[in-house]
Write a structure and sequence with these properties.
- By secondary structure, the chain is α+β, with helices and mostly antiparallel strands.
- It has five helices and four strands.
- Helix 1 crosses helix 3 and helix 3 packs across helix 4.
- 6% of the residues are buried.
Length: 393
Amino acid sequence: MAKRNRRVGYGLPVVLAIAVHVVALLMTMLRLPDSEPTPSSSSVVQATLVSDVTATDQAQYAQEARARTAQRQAEEAAQAAAEQEAQEAARQAAEQQAQEEAQAEEAERQAAAAQAEAAAQRRQQAAEQAAAERAAAEKQQQAAEAKRQAEARARADAEKKRQVEAAAKAEAEKKRQAEEKAKAEAEAKAEAKAEAKAEAEKKRQAEEKAKAEAEAKAEAEKKRQAEEKAKAEAKAKAEAEKKRQAEEKAKAEAKAKAEAEKKKAAEAAAKKAAAEALNNSIANEQERIANAQQSDQASNSFINLVKRAVEDRWHLPANADNGLVAQVRVRLGPSGELLAASITRSSGNPGFDRSATQAVEAAAPFRELQQLDAGLQRRFRDFNLKFTPGDIQ
């Protein structure tokens, strides 16, 4: 809807402005009369030039001129203020009128918009009704189309079912014919197989007969050859046995002769060995006796040396009874150094036991062990010493 043009009125602002100017002009004209007229500045200057005026009169004149100038300026300021107020009033009136016109235009615009919105709603309702009618028509058409398609599908399904049944029937007929053909072929094959089997059996029997005859002939030939071989082997075996017996006889005679000679030599050697053994036994016995005597002497010498060394370093406790007995196990190294001295039989008196082990420790090492032979060294690397208050054994 097009916007309606509205003429803007300026009559009231113009009237107000003219009234303000008239008021200002009247205020300028309505001044109080002076006591005497004041000459203008130009006349003062001329009078000064033609007459002799005193300085006091000049100052008074200047003061009056300044007063008139100030009054005139005040009047001009009042007039300007009045004009400005008139212009402001005119401007405010114009603004108010423009605002009123704008409000009127806004109301007209809102009314036009409401009419347009109502028209749009009517058009939308009409369009919605038309769309609903079209949708109903389309829905009806779709239902008809769906019905037509369902009928077509039903006809197609029936045709397909008929074709499937026909195909199944044809397939069954084809399968029956194939089965009959396979059955006929199987029967023909069975007959051919039976004939082939009979022929094969006949051939097998002929082959077995020929094989039996060949085997019998071969067996007879083999038997003959075996008999001839047995005769030859028996003859060869008899000759070999005869030769073996002769060889064994010769071998037995040679063996008997060798054994006799060996026995004779063995008896001689036995006699000689017995004599040498007797001599060696006598010598060994003499050496053993000498070694035993020497070992006993060395053993006694080493033990006596150990006992003396321990006795020299044994400090018997003052409270030791004569009936106390302690046994100490002494273990030595290869060079006679003391490895350990431990109580194997306690006396019951700790001080007495401790004095015995301390005596062995103080007497070690026993370097004389190195002077003994290997057997005696092994014997005396681990031995026991028995301590009593009066003796060491």
